[in-house]
Write a structure and sequence with these properties.
Layout: H1 6-14, H2 18-23, H3 26-42, E1 67-78, E2 81-93, E3 98-110, E4 114-118, E5 122-134, E6 137-148, E7 165-176, E8 179-189, E9 197-198, E10 202-211, E11 222-234, E12 238-239, E13 242-243, E14 249-262, E15 265-279, E16 288-297
Antiparallel strand pairs: 1-2, 1-16, 2-3, 3-4, 3-5, 5-6, 6-7, 7-8, 8-10, 9-12, 10-11, 11-14, 12-13, 14-15, 15-16
Length: about 300
């Protein structure tokens, strides 16, 4: 089962008055189109079987031959710069413990100028190497990897890093009827772009807690409230082997969020709020980041 519903989506879109889409800002149009496509795919979905945090990764994988469709939007501000990135993600369960997928973003960047177009595509995989089930509790751990490809459109400001980057990490999760907790460590190695710039490698560490205040039946809406602690440490960037003094450093975020599910459909949303930073030289600190994700299991 693939993206055969996209034809029906295009037909439905063409029946709407042209003036409606002409008056809608470009970011909103793309977000609406992704939302319509995932609604069509959701008609064939299966139950959502596990939870992962909003910003941190978790150990959740799919059942064998399972498919997960996720449509999301991530936005944020850093000084005068603002970015918005709707994306469509497809994940496939290779086995009951191993999943792999593809994420296709579309980027909007604003600052001293504005630009939009396809962002850097990402290939990812996750393997659950440990799982322990007991009465009302499941614990698991997984290793994960991601490759960010240099596929973004050109222009200024840049819509991507201009390099191929890789990430490796490990994630742990504990899920019960009431309490949740996760922990993860990731390390990203950045490549060199065409201008000789190599952004500093980055270490990401996350601790997350969650609570379900009221257990519900499967056919009823279910809500888990989340609180994440996210830290990011970046090494200094280099240009042609020369270190840039205004680069690298550490930022800490407190990130409240929510995970809402109903049968085979889920919504994840959260906001990253910075509360501490130690950046090298002169750099803009992150003002905020926000994310919302719609998920279906097929």
């Amino acid at each position: 089962m693939g993206f055969s519903g996209s034809g029906a989506l295009n037909g439905a879109t063409e029946k709407l008055p042209h003036s409606i889409f002409a008056m809608t800002p470009a970011p909103a149009r793309h977000i609406v189109q992704i939302w319509q496509l995932t609604l069509l795919l959701g008609l064939f979905a299966r139950p959502v079987s596990a939870h992962d945090p909003v910003f941190a990764p978790g150990p959740h994988v799919l059942f064998k031959d399972g498919v997960e469709i996720a449509a999301g939007v991530t936005t944020g501000e850093q000084g005068v710069y603002r970015s918005t990135e709707p994306s469509l993600e497809l994940t496939y369960g290779l086995t009951g413990d191993w999943a792999a997928g593809l994420e296709l973003p579309y980027a909007y960047k604003n600052g001293t100028g504005s630009n939009d177009g396809p962002g850097d595509a990402r290939l990812f995989t996750k393997y659950r190497f440990w799982r322990k089930d007991s009465l009302g509790v499941q614990q698991s751990a997984a290793v994960l990897g991601k490759i960010k490809l240099d596929t973004s459109a050109g222009g200024d400001p840049s819509l991507g890093s201009g390099s191929t980057d890789g990430l490796l990490g490990v994630a742990y999760g504990y899920e019960s009827r009431k309490w949740y907790r996760w922990a993860s460590v990731r390390y990203r190695v950045n490549g060199e772009n065409g201008s000789g710039l190599r952004r500093g490698n980055k270490l990401l560490v996350d601790i997350v807690g969650g609570i379900r205040f009221k257990p519900t039946a499967y056919d009823k809406p279910d809500t888990v409230w989340l609180l994440e602690l996210n830290s990011e440490y970046a090494a200094r960037s280099e240009v042609d082997g020369h270190t840039l003094k205004d680069s690298g450093g550490t930022e800490w975020f407190i990130s409240p969020g929510v995970f809402w599910t109903l049968r085979n459909f889920a919504i994840k949303a959260g906001v990253q709020i910075p509360f501490a930073a130690s950046l090298n030289g002169y750099q803009n600190e992150t003002d905020y980041r926000a994310r919302v994700i719609f998920e279906w299991h097929l």
